[in-house]
Structures are given as structure tokens and as C-alpha cells.
Amino acid sequence: MDAVEKANAERQRRWVKDQKVGEGTYAVVYRGRELATGRKIAIKKIKVGQFKDGLDMSAVREVKYLRELQHPNIIELLDVFSSKTNLNLVLEFLDTDLEMIIKDRSLVFLPADIKSWMAMTFRGLEFCHRNFILHRDLKPNNLLIASDGQLKIADFGLARDAADPGYKMTCQVITRWYRPPELLFGCRYYSTAVDIWSVGCIFAELMLRIPYLPGESDMDQLKTIFRALGTPTDEEWPGHTKLPDYVSVGQFPRTPLRDLFTAASGDTLNLLSKCIIFEPRKRISARDALYHPYFFALPYPTHPSKLPKTAAQTAAASRPPDEVDGNVDPGGGAPAGVGKAAPPKKLKRKLSGHDLSRNIARKLDFTAS
Amino acid sequence: MQQQPPTSPDVSSAAKSPLFQSSTQYRNWRFSVEQLKATRAALNQASVAAIRNTFESDSPGSSSDVHFLDANEEHLLVKLYIIKISQLCGHFRFPEEVEATGITYLKRFYLKNTVMDWHPKNVMLTALYLATKTTNHPISLESYTANIPRTNASDVLDLEFLVAQSLAFEFAVWHAHRALWGIWLDIQDLPQAPPHEELQRIHDTAMQHIRTSRLTDVELIYPPSQIALACLSLAHPEIAAFWARSKNADTALEAIESIKRTITRDGDTPSVDVVREIDRHLKICKNPEKVVGSKAYLAKRAREEKEAELKRKKKAENVRKATEQGNPFGEVLVGQANLDDDD
Amino acid sequence: MSTNRTNAASWLRGTTIRKGTTTPATRSHTPQTQTSSSIVFSGGVKDGSGRTSEYFSMDDQCPVCKSDRYLNPKLRLLVSSCYHKMCESCIDRLYTLGPAPCPVCGKTLKKMTFIPQTFEDLVVEKEVAIRRKLAKEFNKRREDFPDLRSYDDYLQEVEDITFNLINEIDIPETQARIAAYRKENAAFIELNQQREEAYVQALKEQEEAERRERQLRAEEIRRAEEEERDAREGERRALIDNLENSDADAARLVAQARAEALKRAAARTAAAHQAVFAQQQETMRLRAAQSAVVVPDQPHVPLLDGYYAYEDLCGLRSSYFDPASDAVRRDKEGIMRAGGYRVEEAWERALRYAVAGLDITPPLGEVSMPLPITSRVDADVAMASV
């Protein structure tokens, strides 16, 4: 036992904590660096012994999956060490996430940018699915962006292996706005298609710059989905009325995607529509998505290094590492992902000619015009 | 104008790494027969020396007539508790996955620890509980302990972190029973595929062998596909051979013979008398430092407390010095990681 | 502690308003409460935006006349300069005719010196007021000091003075220190005060600009919507007129009108697309200008990792004899299908396990047990040396 402890102590010495950047219910996140190389890292310290059932399930899942998955589009777990009462995960440090980039109205997205992000997301997701792992918490907030522009899927706290036949899974997964209708209807036997729905919602959000299907409650979420995509018939989605929590939320007509995504190309809408098909088995798989004509059509996906960056990212890149402003982010951020820099300071932002001519964000109105 | 999508796998000529080879199981929990023997012997010797020391420092000469367990006896005891895991799983109706994972955790634990420090009785309960979590079949601690006689929550939880640590937090396990399922499905594709009744018998027999194999060390040496093939071969040698040949896996055939021998030789249940004897010895030779409330335990705690106190004093001293020299708030916590154990 | 200094200064700044007069350089309006007195007591503590809420509690009771909110719903307690509370009617009654002693401590008070309470604790109220006053003069920033130590010393001095003033220790000596500082640092004080004002000004301008932009946008939307509505109205009316006045076939007219409406809608979206396109061109030009080295975009490659998942070794059949999954596949209720569960995924996984590592030779010999490799870095090194 002492040998194990000693090994841990040695391992611990390779990593240095610099500053606390966030705190969540079961973990504290620090920004730090690798002593030997100066590489920026995040250390997620998980307190053990807090819950009446012992080690927290989310912690267990994160460690289990991050240990096994190594892929350029999945966050990298560099090391794990533990002290008497703490479990420390050393992860690569990522400045920002897709949510912050979408919300930063000073950034303009080109179609090529969206293509690039989608490609990276699909690649990371395809790798999870190739390993028969469902992520079950995909949202822009959990897609972290590195300083070189690479997108990485993070937060495996809700992930699990695909179930063996006949074994139930919980339907209370995925953040509501990105949750597919089969989960909202309470189904306990599902597949990797649930992640594809989430990616479809993210795809739409990248184009609209606001969440595509923001419901205010589970019931409202269903209504929002059906208002946008039409209520499914039994031919479209066989058997859905038999799902455990099925309720009728109203009949809405199907409106063409073209009406909302006016500037999108045919290929774009084709791929998007394939991600948000009602019947889960018909939804496109991650691998097929990567082979979809959308990605091969012009323009080429933007090279990751040229993707839009938030002001904080550009600033962080130009400043020497020690002076990065690490504001403590109380409450938010930490449970979801890893150390992120503070949100860009709003003050002192100059308005450019750009902003005034930008298209105005309207609240999406799915009611018949 | 569109670019034609490529039709073949499109990675550069760099060698592709097979998925199993990138798993923690392949990288960190694979050993040779000799390594296993050597590791267990080393662990055993080290712990015997340490315990003997504790005995001696308490009352000199007390250790001379104590029978300390040897590596084989430890191994036998662990084997018994592997069987107990299966029984418990039957009682709880846990899925095969949970049982297999719990057993693997127990085995791996005792490659890092000795029975004289940690009695398999509680480690077994904890390993199984942890397995329910990592395989996504969680059960509340309450329901778990309620259904096991003479067990309370702390018996299970106290060791959880220790077990996880000893596993190096590597929780994912590739099991042979799933590989067997795969082979069994695949042989239905062969021209020589047996009829359904035969298939069913083959499956059940092979699964029996898989369960027996869990009592041996094979999972620590061979990949699950080979173990599964060996079990299939024990149930129906011809079909197993056909299948292996269809996959061009001739190299596997040699390994399979070795596995079959091991399963047959080591897959037996230890005799009750032998185990009882070992348990009796264990009561005497177990490490007093780990027994809560014993003299040695308290002495060790006192030592640890002193160390912690020294650390705290040092830290306070550093702060005091910093204040006097003018920088009480400091700028960056460089190099403080060592002191940071439980901040 | 030091980083918040500038923010603290602006926060502590407050102003007094007199009803009926316009006050320059302050923002919007402090919530005005109904009172019977002729002077509105404002001031007290404000935050940078000029909006504060007054402290209010259901248990408020005037210590002098003992009226509470139940008897007098409009009860408003104000605080004297010696930090004792009193309701407005008492203040009116006692001080309208001129200065008079405080009923609690006897100190001579004037009507003007009563301010509304912002904080529940009067000690805090006093401290905040003192800090506010001090901050007007002790307004140095980190940049004004050569090093961190001297800045911290300055802050320490300010804290000392504050402490003394709050607790009324060594008042004359402390006042002397303040005076001394004032004399020595007159220039600094002036400079920093100007800086403060400039900052506030800039903030204001920025908010103004943002507000203007928001208004502009809202107007644009309104205008666009109105135009659409008018256009549609016009079309409808034209159609109705046409139907009434002309002899032509009604159906044809309607179809014509619809076609024209579509054309107009198409024109509008085309115009919108033009705008978007122009903006994108602009963005691309900007980006090209910004980056020194132009990294070309690469054509899409579906999979970029180097993993081999044994695809060539396992072929999935459409169906197997598999009692374990019979019930699921039968799926009488159809909920497996509705939920999207695919037995094929479980089969694929099993098939992969069946072939994974089939050709691996087991480790041999007594190589020394390596420390468990838990980090990728170690693994790479170990792999490389094998």
C-alpha cells in the first residue's frame, strides 16, 4: 500500500497547481502546468468521501472513459494521481468552449468555420461510438476549444457503454435543449442516435447563433421540437406513441428547414435534416455524417488555426503565460468541463462598423405566419 | 464542383494501432507467468518483513513462532473469495458483466497488496460494489449492505478509495465472456455451423469454462479473445479450430493450448479444510497496523500525525517568513504542490 | 485586495440630489419615495450606476416616537450624522426650526444631515460613508507606485486612518495625517480625480452607444416587419380590387397574385442573402489581412485517427440465433424500435471482442514489473523503448 502511495507522490510532483479557476459540487478545478515542459494543464481535484454512496458516479465515469479514449478531438487525460482523500485528474488546459464563441457577437462565422467545427465534433463523437460509448451530454458548453483551434469533446460524467440487450438505461440524460424526443418520451432502451440529435441541435445553433430548440420544461421542449419540425406521425416514427411517457402535445405542421435557415446550402440542410429525424434508427450515424457530401463540397472546412477566437483567447495567446488573468468563476464551469479562462471582459470593447450592420437576432417564431 | 469522397480508409501509411492495444488492460495489466509469481513473492516477502518488524517492536521474540502466509496460501485465499463473489452476484442477480468486473478488480488488487494487510473478506465486498458502479449497474449502498449479513456501510466504503487507487483508477475491463458471445455468433457464419440445439449446448458448456477460467490467472496473461477461443475449444474443439483458421489466427492456437491446460489445472475450488487452516493462520499473522484500534495501528497514526504536524508547522513558518520579508499574499503558488495535499 | 481599488472608488462615490433641481453628471433617477417633506433625502450610498435601493424591513420602528410600519405604512427611517435612526415626521417635528440636539446622544444636528439608510447595520453605514469620503482623496492606483510593497504600505496607511476614524481613536492625530497626505499629494489627487471622471464618461458613452445600437436594431426590425405587412396588405387589396373590377377568371387572378407575392418574397430573401454574403466577404478579407502566414484550408478527410478496429475480421450478419436477444428483437410493443435500440450494436461489439488481440503473444519471462503506466507520456516512452 505504501508503495502505491509513494508512486502517487512522485507522480504528483510532475504537475504544479497555479491558480484555482472554478469550483463545482464535487470538484475544484485549478489551472497549472507541467513542471518539466511548462505545458498548460488543468487539474480537476475531486473530493472523495463526500457522498453517502462513496465515490461519485460522475467521477468514476469520467476517469473510466478518459483513461481509455485517446483522440485529437477528445479531451486528453494526461495523468491521474491521488492523495488520501482526493482524486486528481490532470487534463489538458483549454481556454474556451463553443458556447462562449457562439455567444460572442463580435465574431462572425463563415460557413467554412461551421463546417470545420462540425467535422471535428463528428470525428470525436465517431470515435466514442466506435468504442460503443454514448456520451449523453453533448452541448456547446462541453465542446472545448484549444488554443490551436482544435475542438475537443469533454465532460464524460454522463457517459456509459452501450447496453446489452434488455438492460435499461436512464432517460434523464442530456441537457434539455439538446435532448432527443425519444428520451423526452421516457424510453429506456436507446442507442448512439441520441448523441446525433444533440449534434444536430448544435449544428443549427452554430448557424442561428441562438439555441435552436430552447424549451422551458420537458413538456415545453417537446412542444418546441414539434412546432419546429412538425408533430411526427406513426408512419414517420413507428411505435412512439407506446413509449412510457408519451403524451400528445398538439398537432403542428411540418415547416421546411429552408424557411429558417435561409442562407444554408442544400447539402447543409440535408445533413442537418438527417441528424434530427424522429425515428432514431433512421438518424444518420456519426461515421456516415463524416462521409456526407456537405463536407466534401466547397468551401473547404476552415483550418482550425484560423477559426474565430474570442477576445480572451487572442489576448491570452499574445501575453506571456504567467500574466493570464485567471478570475475565479464561482459556481459555473467546473462541474461541466475543465479549466477555462474567465469570460471576456465586456468593458472597453470598441464597436466596429461590423456590429452595426450585423443581422439582428430575433426570437425564433415557429408559429405559422 | 465537388470532390469525390474517398472509398477506402483514408489514414496515412503510418501503422494503425489496434483498439485493444490502446486499452489500459493491454498496457498495464498483462503479465507473464513468471512475473506474476515474482510479484506475488516480492509482495509477500516485503509484507512479512514489515509485519514481523511491527511484532518485534511491540514485544521482541513474539514473531518467531508465528506462521506467516506464503504467496501460495495468499493466492488460495483470494481464490476462495472469487468464488464468494460469484455467489453474491447470484444472490443479487447482478449481470455477468458485474461479476466478471468484480473478480478482475479483486485479482488486480492483490497484485498490489497483500492479504495480510487487507483481508479479502471486505476487499471482496468493496471490489464488487465498485464494479456495480463502473459497469453502470449501480445499487445504493443501503440496499447492498442490507442484503449482506453482518455488513455495514463503512465496511464497504472505507476501502473503496484504496481499491480504486490500487487499480490505478483503470476501470474498463475487456471480458472473455463477451468475446465468447462474439465467437459464438460468428461461428454461425461458418459452413460447418452446427444446428441450433448443438449451438446452445456449446454455448452453455463454453460459458462454464469461462466461469472456471476466472478462478485462474489467465485474464492477467492472455487477451480475452484467446481465452474465449480456448473455452470454446474445450466445448467443441473442431468448430473452434475451424473458426480460428478462418481468421488466420494460427498463432493463437498455441496460446489456446496453454490456456486450456491452465484452466483444467487451476480451475478447481480450493478445499475447505485448507482454506480454514489458512484463515486461522491469518488471524494471527495479519498486520496489526491495519487493525483499527490496535496498539500498532494507533502508533502508526501517531507517527503520521506527527509528520502532518511537522508539515503544518513548516507551512506556517513559510507564511511567517513571507509576511516578515514583505510579501504575505505572494504572487504565484509555484512549487507548493507538495504542501497541497488536502487544501 | 489591491485589484479592486479602482472599482471600489467608483462604487463609493455618491451624490446628493435636491428635488426640483437638475443635477449634472449623474445618471438616471434614484427611486423617489413619497414623503411629506419638501426636501427629498437622497445621497447615502450609491453604486456606479446611481441606482440604490433603500434598506427596508418590516420590523422598522422609530426609536423616538415608536411608530412602526403597521401604524404608518409610509414610515421612512433616516440616519443622523451620529448614526442614530429617526422617522421623517420626528425629524420634521424636531429640526424644522433649526439645529437641535439628538435625542439619543445629544449631539447637535441639522435637518440637512439626515440621510436614508442603505445597510441593515448602521456600523456598516458609517464605515461606508467614511470610506467614501476618504476615497475621494486617497485615490491612488497600483500604477502610481514603483513596486508592490510601497503600494501595500499605502493601502495599510489608508486602512489605519479608516480604522481610527470609524472607532474614533486619535481623531486629531488622524486628521493631521490626512491633511499631511493632502498637502503632499495634491497633484496626484487631482490627476486621479480626472482619470476617474474620464473613466465614468467613457462608461457612459459606451452604454449610450450600446443603447443607441439596440434602438436602431429594434427600429430596423420594426421597419422591416411593417414593410412586409404593408406589402402583404397591398397585395391583398390589389387582388381584391382586381377580383371585383375585372372580368377575368378569379382563380387565375389569385394565382397571379400569389406568384407575384412569391417573387417579391424571393427578392427580399435574395437581398438579405446579398447582405450576408457581403459581410462574409468582408470577414474573409479581414482574416486574411490579420494573419501573417496564410494557412490554406485542407479538403475534408473523414477520419483522422490511426486506430484499427478489426473491421476486416468481423462481418456482421443481419440475424443470428441468439436467445439472449430474442425478446428484444421480437419487440412486441415496438418500444425498442421507437427508442432506437439496436441489437446490432451489441453484436458488433461482441464480434470485435472475439477478434481483438487474437494474434498477440503473451508476455514471457521475468521482465521487471514496471510501475503502472498511468500517464500517456510514460506510455509513449515505454512503447518507444520496447
From TrEMBL, chain A:
GO terms for cellular component: cytoplasm; transcription factor TFIIK complex. Residues 307-354 are annotated as: Disordered. It holds the Pfam family Pkinase. PROSITE patterns: PROTEIN_KINASE_ATP (PS00107), PROTEIN_KINASE_DOM (PS50011), PROTEIN_KINASE_ST (PS00108). It comes from the Eukaryota. It is an enzyme of class 2 (transferase). The active site is at D137. Keywords: ATP-binding, Kinase, Nucleotide-binding, Phosphoprotein, Serine/threonine-protein kinase, Transferase. ATP binds at V21, G22, E23, G24, T25, Y26, A27, V28, V29, K44, K45. InterPro entries: CDK, CDK7, Kinase-like_dom_sf, Prot_kinase_dom, Protein_kinase_ATP_BS, Ser/Thr_kinase_AS. One of its GO terms (molecular function) is cyclin-dependent protein serine/threonine kinase activity. GO terms for biological process: positive regulation of transcription elongation by RNA polymerase II. Its EC number is 2.7.11.23. Residues 15-295 form the Protein kinase domain. Belongs to the protein kinase superfamily. CMGC Ser/Thr protein kinase family. CDC2/CDKX subfamily. This is [RNA-polymerase]-subunit kinase. The lineage of its organism: Eukaryota, Fungi, Dikarya, Basidiomycota, Agaricomycotina.
From TrEMBL, chain B:
Transmembrane segments: none annotated. Residues 307-343 are annotated as: Disordered. Pfam families: Cyclin_C_2, Cyclin_N. SMART domains: CYCLIN (SM00385). InterPro entries: Cyclin-like_dom, Cyclin-like_sf, Cyclin/Ssn8, Cyclin_C_2, Cyclin_N. Residues 83-165 form the Cyclin-like domain. The keyword Lyase does not apply. Keywords: Cyclin. Belongs to the cyclin family. This is Cyclin-like protein. It comes from Russula ochroleuca. The lineage of its organism: Eukaryota, Fungi, Dikarya, Basidiomycota, Agaricomycotina.
UniProtKB/TrEMBL annotation, chain C:
It is found in: Nucleus. Gene3D superfamilies: Zinc/RING finger domain, C3HC4 (zinc finger). This is RNA polymerase II transcription factor B subunit 3. GO terms for cellular component: transcription factor TFIIK complex. Its main location: nucleus. SMART domains: RING. It comes from Russula ochroleuca. Residues 1-43 are annotated as: Disordered. GO terms for biological process: nucleotide-excision repair; regulation of transcription by RNA polymerase II. It holds the Pfam family zf-C3HC4_5. Residues 192-260 form a coiled coil. InterPro entries: MAT1/Tfb3, MAT1_centre, Znf_RING, Znf_RING/FYVE/PHD, Znf_RING_CS.
